Amino acid sequence: TTRNGSTLRVAGDPRGTGTEGALIVRPERIRVLRDGGAANLLEGRVAQTIYLGSSRKLTVETKEGVVVVRESVGEMSSARDGDSVRLGWEAGDGVLVPTSPAASEAVPPVA
Length: 111
What we know:
With 111 residues, the protein is mainly beta. It is built from one helix and seven strands; from the N terminus they run βββββββα. Helix content is 5%, strand content 42%.
């Protein structure tokens, strides 16, 4: 659970519940949802849309902070600047990076 009250899930996290850290999710794994849900949900407002040829970048302001979403051609939502949106991603799409030294020591190094 975040400081702002959102419950966000990370799959296979060896540190367990209650670990303080930063949740890292690649922008292309986050989706703007019309219907349905996902393991993790945030609501926000589109602050900026930038078209990048075969994709576009949405900057979304949420109560947890700014979230960047990258949509590819064929998977683009109808969201525009100023629109209220629901964002979603699956638990396996995120990685929790601990912010406390004790939590960092409990994580085995990646080979």
